[in-house]
Design a protein that fits this description.
The structure is a single chain. The protein is α+β, with helices and mostly antiparallel strands. 29% of the residues lie in helices and 39% in strands.
Amino acid sequence: MILAKRILVFLSLCFLLGNVGCSSKAEEKKEEEVQYLVTSPLQKDTLATKDYVCQVHAIQHIEVRALEKGYLQKIFVDEGQIVKKGQLMFQIMPTMYNAELQKSQAEANYVDIEYRNTKQLADSNIVSKNELALAKAKANKANAEVSLARAHLQFTQIRAPFSGIMDHFQVRLGSLVEEGNLMTTLSDNSKMWVYFNVPEAEYLDYKTHHDDNMKHVKLVMANNELFDQPGEVQTIEADFNNETGNIAFRATFPNPKGLLRHGETGSIRMTIPLKNALIIPQKATYEVLEKKYVYIVDKDDVIRSREIKVAAEMPHIFVIQSGLKKTDRILLEGLRQVKENEKIHAKFMQPAGVISNLGLYAE
């Protein structure tokens, strides 16, 4: 009886151990049969966006300076105020210039009387024609002095040369202003000129493939929001900067709401056509010390890491500059689950299907 029980226990243990062994082998087999998705770069013509650091300038931005010397008598505007063309901004005390105008007018009147008297005598052949010409010259000179005095008086009133927005004052009421002193600055912000530097190679691409996609640009403001008005590249400077290898582009943006101000910074976002570009999903890459890598799957399904260079970045995809060929197979998923030189079971997916499933704009 005891012997029978021992035999029964022994057989039960064997059965349990056998099941455990079978389960382990089944799990190992299952792990070995895990398939990893593999794809290739998609080669096609596409459009990429690139950002360039830029400086925003008003279409007109000038320094307003005094044309006459004197005490600043009145200020008719305020800092940050919008002014209209011809609007009076500053008044320099005109007392002395009024006196000079009155003096020159009096002299002109005196000389004019002399001229008329001399003309009457010349008509009667009492004085020579040369004496009449001399009197005429004196009258002309006196009238010129009047015009000059009137101009000096007008210069005591400083008016806006165009419609724009005032900057802060450089002088205060009652200040003694010298000729040429800076009073303030004035900006016409109805349109903005935005300058950005483009490397030589990209300039050549722009000139070679110039079309409306590259001509029209967007402005990313300092708060990372897009400006609500489109811009247009209208001019390129004549010379490259020998130190940086860049050339300056200028784009013009309408500014109907006055949001943009002179001196702002931001980024110009330009659309660039790419011919026969190699495109891969971003999720197929990983980074080590700020360098980007992919796992290449060779003909024997062994994975090896390879560094790549990225030419352009779009949502969820990279445009490859170097490091990959169209025929290379790359690991698409499970990058953290594999190791260098590991053999995997690969399942290939067509690159066009991979990209389209990402729901991206890649045309």
